[in-house]
Please model this.
Amino acid sequence: MEERYEPQVLAFCCNYCSYAAADLAGSMRMEYPAQVKIVRVPCTGRVDELYLLRALELGIDGVYVAGCLEGNCHFLLGNIRARRRVARVKEILKDIGINPERVDMFNLSASMGIRFVEIACEFVERIRRLGPSPVKTGSGSELLTSGASSTAEPSADNTMTQK
Model:
């Protein structure tokens, strides 16, 4: 019998909004995937690129940062800083051949418990479609193997060109 792949997801949630939204979802008895592990942080502005990369390095299949709505950060610009850091991590992942869709950023208010559950479910489903992390499986670059119908061939100067 084949076991269904269940991705491991880490969610960095700010204390004031997204963690409160997760708490509200729990109070409303809403369920989100058990694979989502929440790390409560004072502000998403404190989530460093290294935390996201280290989580992936340790075998987490997907990581997201959930902060306050833009313009409503309790620490003024924390969520803006976090969005920039997530964008940098996506670029790094792309450069090393890991699908940047494994990392994302979301903005929530404390009253958005339903949206928190939707995000958790959608993100887990996205990661499930991507499959296990290539870091965990040791399969190498997933961007080269998961391309659409194009193939890459070496050119005369030994660089790869799309065909």
